[in-house]
Amino acid sequence: MINPDALLTLPYGMYVVCSGNKEFGNGFLSNVVFQVTAEPPRLGVSCNKDNFTANIILENKSFSISLLSQNTPADVIRKFGYQSGKVNKQKMQGCSLKYGSCNVPIFLDHVICYFDCKLTQTIEIGTHYIFIGEVVEATLLDNETAAMTYAYYRNVMKGKSPKNAPTYIDKSININLKTKNMSTLKKYECDVCGYVYDPAIGDEDAGIKPGTAFEDLPDDWVCPLCGVGKDNFTLID
Fold first, then answer.
1. Is residue 177 assigned to a domain?
2. Suppose 135 and one of 41, 96, 108, 166 were both cysteines; which one would form an S-S bond, judging by CB atoms 3.0 to 4.6 Å apart?
3. Is residue 75 part of a domain?
4. 185-195: per-residue pLDDT in tens?
């Protein structure tokens, strides 16, 4: 028997992995980055074979890794986690980038540190590649802000910006619990990205107050993480 909750307890970070060149680049969100050797320093990255960036890494023989901080806003997660470069050709537009020794884009927004890597080995494991890269440049940008972990992303952000932790409720908003019992309001989960709409929290960024039932959301409301509509949500029993 495999308990999936046990797998979720494994510690991970949250990274933006990029490849390409100054003419065209792309990146994806990864939570599986690990150090393989110390001398020379080599890092491993897991990447789905269907990922648009996978072929770019194979072609360019290099990639960069940027460790995200807890201050990373939801739109970064949305862009690199749920928008494919196959569709959004301007995915890197508006991002703070630099180009290091390997001439690949290095993502700099809300980043703790970054690594510029030369691809040395590619391992095929089922649906994924493990890209092994030798680090040619490593820079620490912020040694004060905590790094975003996968546990933080799941348990605190709930697919939203850090200020909207699951326990956060704007106390300036008066909710009449006598007329709207929070316990009767149901949670709904996004079928695409796993974001959970919790009526007790609402969606402050979209102007949805705590206490708003899913059924009462405007017809044009979309998932704050991946942007799909209400018809892509399923009731959580």
1. no
2. 41
3. yes
4. 889 988 877 78
